Every structure is written in structure tokens, then in C-alpha cells.
Amino acid sequence: MTTQTFVLPDVGEGLTEAEIVSWRVGPGDRVAVNDVIVEIETAKSLVELPSPFDGVVGELLVDEGTTVAVGAPIITIVAEDEATDATAPSAAPVTVGQTEHGAPAEPPAGEGSVLVGYGTGGHVQSRRRAVRQAHRERVAASVGVIAKPPIRKLARDLGVDLADVVPTGPAGDVTRDDVLKHAEQASVFRNIQTPDWGTVREETIPVERGAGAASATPVIAPAAPTPPADEDREETIEVKGVRKATSSAMVRSAYTAPHVSVWTDVDATRTMELVKRLKASPDFADVKVSPLLIMARAVIWAVRRTPMVNAAWVDTDHGAEIRVRRYVNLGIAAATPRGLLVPNIKDAQDLSMRDLARALEKLTLTAREGKTQPADQQGGTITITNIGVFGMDAGTPIINPGESGIVALGTIRQKPWVVDGEVRPRYVTTVSGSFDHRVIDGDGMSRFIADVASILEEPALLLD
Q1: Looking at the whole model, is its pTM more than 0.85?
Q2: What is the pLDDT of residue 426?
Q3: Do 336 and 378 fall into the same domain?
Q4: Shared domain check, 336 and 281
């Protein structure tokens, strides 16, 4: 029997470990080359690993939720021509109407007589098992459960097996409501089958004792409320994956590069007018347009006028260097269920407004789905963080490692603003940024932020 072992590969540059998030196959499943067999989480992204072999799954060597080192064996696959003998059961098959121990089995759903108040629980359980088994067979046929990473985490937290959950999503995927409904039904069913006798379900009203009442039935006092257990008062979140990588990078950046932050208020009324016109334009009908698009164009334009904000401090064996990049790999900080990601748009300086809008939309959707690849997070030159979506006016963000500047766009809201000596309602925002003072002097960072602000105030300058 030829058994092939698949070891965890390095799916990124220099990654040393990954967490097994969910298996898409189980023992006995047939797989072909390039079939997805497992979803893993690295320090940078979620990655689906394809099978390098044809055959039948032998053994899953690592449990879900376990972090393993690159090169560690994670699954065995038996060669297809030998799989039948290797996976055939050694015991006689269980026939309908008999259990594996020879005892009579419960009648199939819809068959046999069930008296009111007798045998109902077993009959219901039998039907539920039949439904779950049918769903498991469909899951096995489609090689895995379709569910997003946050849904998988929710299921793990609630102790729900996704293979038992009947999906209702538009693409046959398991939704959050599906998991919660399944968990609630399981909880109710458990309470019915094994009632908590310590819970007061009836109240006894005490009767005052008088003469001759010594033999009255004693009063059952309600149970005192149980104080919450210590584990219910606190939650421990393991630092791993993206959160672990982000924390290490932020600490390294904060304590390596001397950060200096500057900011300025901006009248972004004309930016909002431009966004409105672009949304109504047929040329932008199929892409998302937001103030972030104008901000991105403003940063690219301002980088051309102050190239040092796009440079990097590099320590080499023969001393430190400042490396000035003549291209812009524009990073966009994205908050995802797995933590902070900073994917970047390669050569953003060469994109038209429409192409940049499309790139921003794709980047955002990919990050939300947890599908950002490691290569998309490497090689950034300058980053934008849109804290305005959280209602924040300004901030002092930490520079992404390998870069020298990060710009923050605050929320855009109407405020009183002086225009030509008169106070008028205008759309106002704050542009702020942090810079590596080893690379950029005060005049350079101030000029850069002023240039970004000037574009938000008058987007027509982009026509230069």
C-alpha cells in the first residue's frame, strides 16, 4: 500500500508556521490533484491548499485550530488503485433494522406506530439523525462546507459542527443565522432531554402555620442565583496568525522609526461634489466610488512632489541607506475579522481614475473575505488608513514596516466654515499622517500633507 504524506508548505516568503483552520475533506474521501483539501491561516492571510496527490484520504494528522510548523506532515493520501482495499471496512455491514450490536434499530422516519407520549423522543432523534446524515452526505459529495472564516470561528466558539448545519446562503454557504439557529436548537433539545433539576420551574406559596399545622408540607425555597463563573467574566484570545504578525510589526516599527505626526483641517466640499458626479457617470457605473478614491489620487500626486515620503530607511552590512522608490505601491489599511491587513496596489501611479477605483474595490472585497495573498501585502511604499469610516476625525497611525509614511483620512461631515468672510456649512475633514523622521524632515512632511489637502479642497488640480 502506497501512502503519500503531504507536509505543510511555505505559502509565503519566509513564513514558518500556519494554523489549520478547517479541513475540507475527511478520511475515506477521494481527492484529485488540485482539489482543495484544507484552509490554513498564516501570519498574513487565509490560504486554501490544493492536494498534490490523487487518491483517498487516509488520516488527518493535525486537528483544526492547531498551529504547525512549515514542513510538518498534515495529511496522508492512499494511492487510488490501492484505496479500495485499504479503506474497506473489516466488519460486516450494518443492515437496515439492526444495529451493529444486533439490537433492533429505530424505525425509519415515517414508519411504525408512535403513541402519544411514548417513543416520541426517539422518533424525533431518528429523523434528525437522518436529516443530518443526508446533509453530511451532500457535504461529502461537494468536498467541504462553504463558510466564511468568521462563521467558522463562531461555529467553533459555540461548539457547532458545520457539517450538521443546513446552509441557507445564496451560494449554498452556511450563514451566521444558520449557525446561531443550529446552536439554539441544540441547546433547547439538550434541555428537554436532560432537564436541570436545580432550576426552579414551579413556585410554592408558603402557608402561614397556625395551630395544628405542624405537619404541613415543607416549603421549597427558590434556588439562589448562581454567581457567574470566573471563566464567564473574562475571555482569553490567543495571539496568533495575523494578529500576532501585526503586533510584532507595529512594535518593531514604533520602537525603530522615530515617528512624527502632523495634521490639517480641509474643506472637502468639492471632493464630495466630484464623488457625486463620478457615481452618476456611466463610466463608473460598475465600480464603487468613495472619497477614498480621491484621497488615493491625492497621495499619489503629492508623492511625485515630495518623493522622500515614498522612500525607505534600510540598514545594510556597510551602513544605513535611504532607498527612494520611483513607483507607488499604495497600501490600504483594512480592518478584517482576522485583524489588520495592509494589502497594496502595485504601481498605482500608472492607473487611471477608473482603474484605481476598480483596484480599491477588489482589494477591499478580497480583504473582507480573508483571501488576501501574502504577495499582495509585500512591497508597499506608502499607506492610507481610512479612519473616517469609524467616525474618527484624526489620528497618529503607526508606520507600516518598510515604509516611511502613513496618511489618515478622517470622517467627512458638515461643519461651519468661513468662505469669503462668511460662515457657511461645508464638508470638512482632517488629513493627518505619521512619518519616519530619519527619512523625512519637518518641511517635507508638512509640504506633503499640504499637497494632499489641496487636492481634497480642489480636485481639479489632478488635471495638471
Answers
A1: no
A2: 96
A3: yes
A4: yes
Number of domains in the chain: 3
Any residues with CB less than 8 A from the CB of 30 and at least 6 apart, and which? 55, 56, 57, 80, 83
Phi, psi values for residue 112, rounded to 5°: 80, 165
- What is the CATH number for 299? 3.30.559.10
How far, CA to CA in Å, does 329 sit from each of 137, 307, 404, 435? 46, 13, 13, 17
List C-alpha distances in Å: 285 to 280, 292, 354, 357, 362: 7, 17, 10, 11, 15
Q: Catalytic: 182?
A: no
Residues 146, 52: one domain?
no
User: Do the bridges between strand 17-23 and strand 36-41 make them parallel or antiparallel, or are there none, so unpaired?
Assistant: antiparallel
Kindly state whether residues 270 and 417 are assigned to the same domain.
Answer: yes
Domain range for 60 is 1-88
Q: What is the pLDDT of residues 429-463, one digit of tens each?
A: 999 999 999 999 999 999 999 999 999 999 999 88
Of 195, 222, 249, the position where a domain reaches its end is 195
Strand intervals (E) in 289-329: 311-316, 319-324
Q: Which of 123, 182, 259, 437 is flagged as catalytic?
A: 437
The 10s digit of each residue's pLDDT in 198-208 is 444 444 445 44
pLDDT tens per residue, range 385-400: 999 988 999 999 999 9
Helix (H, G, I), strand (E, B) or coil at 355: helix
